[in-house]
Structures are given as structure tokens and as C-alpha cells.
Specification:
Number of domains: 1
Shape: globular
Radius of gyration: 14 Å
Oligomer: single chain
Distance between the termini: 46 Å
Largest sheet: 6 strands, antiparallel
Number of helices: 0
Order of helices and strands: EEEEEEEEEE
Helix content: under 10%
Structural class: mainly beta
């Protein structure tokens, strides 16, 4: 799937929705709960089932990133399915440390 910043995606197996903040240069395979993420407005075919063994679902307002491919997503609706990119789980992006004010 070719991504672009601002693109809205949703899960086919749970309530999760994300927005692409930073898109990689190439194509990637994004998933949620073991099923591919769908473009906003695209309907799920109903054949996919939730795979809870992949981990916990995304949390509202959290950013998920993979530095290896240059991807960053913002969760706009929480869900039960874990976010994945190319089969690897996406992790919550940590906060940048502030400079010390000695």
C-alpha cells in the first residue's frame, strides 16, 4: 500500500482508526488485528477475523512509529487489534526528551 500524509485508514476487524502523519517512500503492508488496514470509505468484506495474539490495540491519541521504514501513525479511534507494518508490530512513539535548563 502506498501511503501519503493525512491519509485516513481504518481496521477491517475492530473499531481502530488512524491517520498517516509521516509516510514512507516505498510501499508497506499495514495491518490491524491480523487484517490489512482499509482506506477511509472502503468497506470490509467481513471475511477477516481479529487475531488477538499480535498484542494490544492502539490507544486514542497515541502515535505509533517504525523508524526503519519511516512511518508514523496517529490513532484517532482506539481498537482491539494491534497495528503492524510488514508483519512487525508498531510501537508507541516515545516523547522527545526536552533540553535541560540548567
Amino acid at each position: 500500500m502506498k501511503l501519503r500524509p493525512g491519509q485516513k485508514l481504518h481496521s477491517a476487524v475492530c473499531d481502530a482508526q488512524v491517520v498517516v502523519v509521516k509516510a514512507p517512500a516505498g510501499e508497506v503492508e499495514l495491518g490491524c488485528g491480523g487484517a490489512p488496514l482499509l482506506d477511509d470509505g472502503q468497506e470490509a468484506d467481513g471475511a477477516a477475523t481479529l487475531d488477538e495474539s499480535l498484542g494490544e490495540g492502539p490507544l486514542l491519541g497515541k502515535r505509533y512509529a517504525d523508524e526503519e521504514v519511516g512511518l508514523e501513525l496517529l490513532c484517532t479511534r482506539a481498537g482491539k487489534g494491534a497495528l503492524t507494518v510488514d508483519g512487525r508490530p508498531l510501537l508507541i512513539k516515545g516523547a522527545k526528551p526536552l533540553p535541560s535548563s540548567d
